[in-house]
């Protein structure tokens, strides 16, 4: 099975090269690449987005684990944190896409990039499709189920962030 | 200072750290990912002080139950940051963004001290207020601006645009970076 998966991925990966070449050639990608300041400044904004996203995620995740703001209900925190969570995600997208476009070919050959791209949809789907709706249910108390939700969220986003940072090292 | 830092940068652990294949990136990654917990929780508390969000949550819930996490994360940020500095002390000391970062860190520290030693003393009078008093809102605003600047300056330390070995630079850059430039040979 692993061998078949590897063969499948090799095929998909190879077929994506022309797409990545086109992405690299987009005007946005080219202008970020040619500017001295654009990449660092967008990168810094990406980090500020990380702070906002991290804060709004962890506030709820800690509470799901039974830590942090324990005096408030999970539902109250999750409801209040939601706009900041969505705002943080929006900043990450708005800054992450031009960063990617400026070095699409480098990313194409970068394992960390593909790890991030594989975990990111899972993390987003889990957060918006599962964790957030459940957390906002008024009857949810700290329980083993809530702890699993909180721990999964921290683990998933940790992999996304760590892989993201590692794109720059490899 | 330069002689001390030059010596520090020549110690064997500093050299090993700088040249390491995985240890330096791992420390730097911890420093960056720690941002999510440290600045993330700090910003949430600042937004509460500003009365922007979590208006129904008492301020003391943030300063009592969330702040320990912020403090713990600060220990991680400071220790990984010190290790990164130790890996290349002379370069960081003369990096203009590093200097800006250290100055703003002092400002952030004074703001924290001011808030906790004065403003927060009287918190019982406005703990549940959706919109805290002016002094608390100012503290929250200063904190957000300071930490955001620290993050941006910290990220830019990686770039050598204004480093002493890249010349010529404007005089104010060399002054701000503390660069010692040998006098130009006269014609």
H and E string of chain A = HHHHHHH
What does the oligomeric state look like here?
heterodimer
Instruction: Give the strand tally of chain A.
Output: 0
> How far apart lie the N and C ends of chain B?
33 Å
Helix content of chain B: over 70%
Biggest sheet descriptor of chain B = none
pLDDT below 50 for ≥5 consecutive residues: which ranges of chain B?
Answer: none
Q: Structural class of the helix and strand makeup of chain B?
A: mainly alpha
Please tell me how large the radius of gyration of chain B is: 20 Å
The largest pleated sheet of chain A is described as:
none
Overall mean pLDDT of chain A stands at 95
What is the CA-based Rg of chain A, rounded? Answer: 18 Å
Mean pLDDT, all residues of chain B = 91
Strand content of chain B: under 5%
Stretches of chain A where pLDDT is under 50 for at least 5 consecutive residues are: none
How would you describe what is shown here?
The complex is a heterodimer of chains A (170) and B (187). Chain A is mostly helical and 170 residues long. Helix content of chain A is 83%, strand content 0%. Chain A is globular, with a radius of gyration of 18 Å. In chain B, 70% of the residues lie in helices and 0% in strands. Chain B contains eight helices and no strands. In chain B, α2 (12-19) packs across α4, α3 (23-50) runs antiparallel to α4 and α3 runs antiparallel to α7 (134-156). The longest helix of chain B has 29 residues, at 59-87. Chain B is elongated and about 65 Å long. Chain A binds chain B through residues 36, 40, 43-44, 47-48, 50-59, 62, 67-72, 76-77, 80-81, 83-84, 157-158, 161-162, 165-166, 169, and chain B through 25, 28-29, 32-33, 35-37, 39-44, 47, 53-54, 56-58, 61-62, 65-66, 69, 147-148, 151-152, 155-156, 158-159, 161.
